[in-house]
Amino acid sequence: MPHFAPHRQRGVALITAILIAALVSVIAVAMATRQTLDIRRTGNMLEADQAYMYALGMEELAAQVLAKDKKDTGDVDNLGEDWAIPLPPTVVEGGSVAGRVEDMQGRFNLNNLVDGSSKVDPAQVKAFQSILEQVSAADENIQISPFMANRVVDWIDADLNTSADGAEDLEYLNADIPYRTANQFMASPTELGAMLGMSPEDVSALLPFVSALPVPTTVNINTASEAVLLSLHDDITAAIAGELVEFRKENVFKNKADFEKKLLDDHQITVDNKMFDVKSDYFLVSVDATIGRTQLRMYSLLERKNGKVATIRRSIGTY
Q1: How far apart are CA 21 and CA 253, in angstroms?
Q2: Which residue in 6, 32, 52, 275 has a CA-CA distance of 20 to 30 Å to 211?
């Protein structure tokens, strides 16, 4: 029988002990690493939940301010009211929160392009084409054809009849990744990114001037930008639009007649009063919440109707 010397047995035992110690060390490190990751993951989830709660709180605050504004000032909305004052970054437990409210009827509502029966509105198409031209003129890197308005019409109207230079299912199904038109109102202006020929840069350039509201709406002349005011009539120039914005800083348009009289008296321009108003029903709340390492941006679209304010859409990261 083979005989192992005692010193050889001790050598084998030592190596075995070293291997076991190494294995235990590896397991311990793995467990510690996993525990650290779990703690970090849990911390991130708690921070994200806390940031979301603060964002919801800001949304509720905005709703209360808008409801009070309706009660106090009635059917006139302008940029001098409390809701239009941004909330700068404010320290809260664990971080900070900031927010602002924007009047979505100060932008062009893309869903105005067709009415409730899916019939194209030529005046609204013309207004949107004006905005497309202005955005393209403002940036040499942005060149959006006015006919892109027809593609948006085809995207939201109920039929499959292609407009001039428009696009319906047939064109989209021939794309590298085929898809169909929505054939219904847009839920978000970011849907512009689905239009054939519309680049991400084009969409980014357009977003400050457009909205996608659940129903056709009028433009609030007290809150609209120069580009949107200019789109209301062919004879409104950039200079006139700028003049109206300056006039607005000291003089709120209290009704449609005030605006009509201003344009008629100063510039002999007669506008279609069906396209504009001095009040608004839809507002966008943008909230930036920072808790620890977590940063959250939330958008809430609010509808104010009969003095009551309701949230009709929320999104995280993009409107």
Answers
A1: 82
A2: 52
